[in-house]
Specification:
Layout lengths: L2 E5 L2 E4 L4 E8 L6 E8 L6 E6 L7 E2 L7 E6 L4 E6 L8 E9 L16 E2 L3 E6 L1
Parallel strand pairs: 2-11
Antiparallel strand pairs: 1-3, 3-8, 4-5, 4-9, 5-6, 7-8, 9-10, 9-11
Length: 128
């Protein structure tokens, strides 16, 4: 059982940056593919980025490609999401998620239903 806790959200002006962190505990962190998802008011949860258990091979939603960067530190059980060039449409609650590495492939890495563990979320608000 893995517990995830996000932090780092806040209010930022358009064009600004934030760094989200997700601390994992209670499991073998290096065995999990990690993902970030977000949910805006009135909208469905959507995929943002994923990173395989060994790192490398990151995958991004088209809407954030070139602006967001996902990374992980297996030694400290942390995963990060660097958000640059933020836009008002990036406003959402951002969630960290984990899935056993062997259950996630290039086919389903964007599917929230295939992730096993979720954090409580952190709010990101981008003002225009």
């Amino acid at each position: 059982q893995v517990q995830l806790a996000e932090s780092g959200g806040g209010l930022v002006q358009a064009g600004g940056s934030l760094r989200l962190s997700c601390a994992a505990s209670g499991g073998t962190f290096s065995s999990y593919t990690m993902g970030w998802f977000r949910q805006a008011p009135g909208k469905e949860r959507e995929f943002v980025a994923a990173i395989p258990y060994r790192g490398g091979g990151m995958h991004y939603a088209d809407s954030v490609k070139g602006r967001f960067t996902i990374s992980r530190d297996n030694a400290s059980n942390m995963v990060y999401l660097q958000l640059n060039s933020l836009k008002p449409e990036d406003t959402a609650v951002y969630y960290c998620a984990a899935a056993f590495w062997h259950t996630i492939t290039a086919v389903n890495q964007e599917m929230s239903r295939d992730y096993d563990y979720w954090g409580q979320g952190t709010q990101v608000t981008v003002s225009s």
